[in-house]
Design goal:
Blueprint lengths: L3 E6 L5 H15 L3 E6 L6 H5 L2 H9 L8 H6 L2 E7 L7 H8 L2 H5 L7 E8 L6 H15 L2 E2 L8 H4 L8 E3 L11 H25 L1
Parallel strand pairs: 1-2, 1-3, 3-4, 4-5, 4-6
The chain binds flavin mononucleotide.
Flavin mononucleotide binds next to helix 1 and strand 4.
EC number: 1.6.5.2
Keywords: Oxidoreductase
Pfam family, one: FMN_red
Length: about 200
Amino acid sequence: MAINLAIVYYSSTGTNYQMAKWAEEAAQEAGANAKVLKVEELAPKAAIESNPAWKDHYEATQDVPVASSDDIEWADAIIFSTPTRFGNLPSQMKQFLDMQGGLWANGKTINKVVSAMSSASNAHGGQEATVQALYTSMMHWGAIIAAPGYTDPVQFASGGNPYGVSVTVDQEGNMVEDVKDAVKHQAKRTIEVASLVKKGQEVNA
Ligand SMILES: Cc1cc2nc3c(=O)[nH]c(=O)nc-3n(C[C@H](O)[C@H](O)[C@H](O)COP(=O)(O)O)c2cc1C
């Protein structure tokens, strides 16, 4: 039974896009149907153009589909990847969540299996707070949070954030920690939990 996985991300300069792509790679290895979807960019053009890395990434990802409520309804599982902004979610990601009110009101967010990842410029720059902010909204959705915990040794090698993979990005935009394997583990675990939930739903149907 293939799991439908939506990988919903926001990224200004490519870090969270790369993490989303690693999650997609893991999902394909696990036999899931995966879609990498960006949330809509809301920043004014002038802001994007003032930062060459942002402008380059914005232009390079024009072909990535924009996440919609239909994608959330389709998904058995959702992985969110999002930068930290002042210790919190970027407004672009928050806007996406806020646009799911209709879905929520119709009970369509219930039992989605979710997990989240984040990045920031500093090792302790708020990644955990960002992941937890997203999880707070997920509790309102009635979603099932499949945090990675310490379910695999790769967690320790990547910085050991049990809430969700987090990474530090240096001034040149490079990831400091090697988190690829941890991202792939988190994606596979999210799919595994979604599979248990889906099987349970079929048995009880
Ligand atoms: C408005 C703004 C606020 C930010 N706030 C934080 C912060 O609170 N802590 C931190 O370490 N980095 C902060 N950063 C750095 C971003 O988290 C970093 O650029 C981002 O994680 C890179 O991800 P991306 O390449 O996917 O855009 C901030 C950046 C911006 C533009």
